[in-house]
Sequence to fold (589 residues):
Amino acid sequence: MRIVRGIQVSNGIAIGRAFVLEDAARRVSARWIQPGEVETELERLDNALERSRADLNAVYAEAQREMGDEAAKIFLFHLGMLSDPSLVDPMRALVQSERVSAETAVDRTFRELEERFASMPDTAFQTKVNDIEDLADRVLATLGGQRLESLTGVEEDTIIIARDLTPTQTAGFDRNRVIGMATDLGGRTSHTAIVARALGMPAVVGCRELLDAVPHGAAVIIDGDRGSVIIQPDEDTLDRYKGYIEQQETYRLGLRELADMPSVTTDEVEVTLQGNIEFPGEIGPMLELGGSGVGLYRTEFLFLTGATVPTEQDHFEAYTACLDALGPDRALVIRTVDLGADKYTQAQAEFPERNPFLGNRSIRYCLRSLPMFKTQLRAILRASALGNVRIMFPLVSTLAELRHARMILRDVMEDLDEQGVGYDHDLKVGMMVEVPSAAVMARSFAKEVDFFSIGTNDLVQYTLAVDRTNERVANLYQPANPAVLRMIREVVRAGRNGKISVSCCGEAAGDPEYALLLIGLGVRTLSVTGSSVPALKRLVRSVSIKQCERVARKAMSFDSEVEVSAYLRSRARKLVPEAFDGRAVEDRA
Ligand code: PEP
Ligand code: MG
Fold:
């Protein structure tokens, strides 16, 4: 038995057999044709493109059904490319003028495009290289008379092991047979991770050594709760995990009953549980699990999935789709685009950045791309006339920045006033607190916003100087580090002083142990991935505020992360053992 740790991206446990996808390096030898063969070759090329489009349409339709419109848009980019004359015409020209085979023409054209995209300074283009390779493979496979969905014939209970996976591959999995996956590359924000979460498939990425460690056909457990892959587990481990899956099922059924119950502590204090979403389609399932609104809509995914920069109408439609799902009263906190760093930057970025996490990202980027920013603000304001919309700025690090953003918002409001377009004049404006400078200055910020939302994902990385996407320093990435906790405490106090609400929307908030501490520190709204809502509700309904405060006081007395974590673990499991029934226990394997 061997355990490989990776990055947890999609919860759940899967036990199955490994299907190891070797790297399919594209090897196409150049082949020349006779003048008389040109017509036949062009026909082969056209047919292959046509069939690839048809296949992609099917993948798109399937993805729409399984993951919703927004997530499926990834494949519209693929379809758009295959219909784009600037890609297709050069292929035909190569066959005609250089008399090369259809395969050679396809291979050359895609390679040139890949190189062009890879050398562009902007990560928006660089990250599309994968998609282009994916497309090239698809067309070449079709030319060779194969279909790319080589995974359709896999056995039941298959676990895909790969160096990396493209979104097409991931969405093309036969969901009745493929039950989990793990890759050597990738981080939480990679396409594959997004698709896996949207499919609800247990997944671990960033494992680094899997491909060498897993024999094809080996028994494998994916522990998506802990981010580990157990290769050839021994009987004991296998039994424990089997028991655990059963437990999880029962637990899940039990949790359904909780969905409609109020999220209040035993002493009747409400702790609001909201969902973090990337796509409007995630709202329905989140509400079913008992969430009461959207605390964080990561609108940058509108840029990630579309082939072009979203228009005002694209924004507006996405927001109204959210409001349709939420109804008129439930909150929708729309965060303005948080592009850059690990997420796509805009095509307009002029200079490559040496240090993009500290670079022109998020609100900084928006403030320098005013037409794009104003387009989004207009759409948010228009949507605010239709429901309980709030607006939130990401990565604010100085007061000047916040004031600048608010000034732009006022400009856009004035434009709408002049044009007689309606919006909510009392729209609540908040900010993420995810940079240490904002946490330290929270009292000043509290005078100028209506709410704070603590983003632990970034706050941890910037406080501890640990790249949140780098698997090599993952052990130093510690949400329970006392330095981080002191920041959070300060922000909550500042919020209380300034009489504004403070929520937490980082991943850590979805962990019941950590949530116990946050509630004890005074946080009354937690915004988390939908699947984390039920366990949190169970926690909330089982504890009193007094108990949480006692836990927080004690936790704040430690000066090392190890002590804090150990204490939280033991207290949480004593106070609310049932909140942990459905989770993989850390030392399971
Ligand atoms: C955060 O930083 O905690 C956060 C919620 O935002 P994101 O993960 O989108 O950076
Ligand atoms: Mg963030």
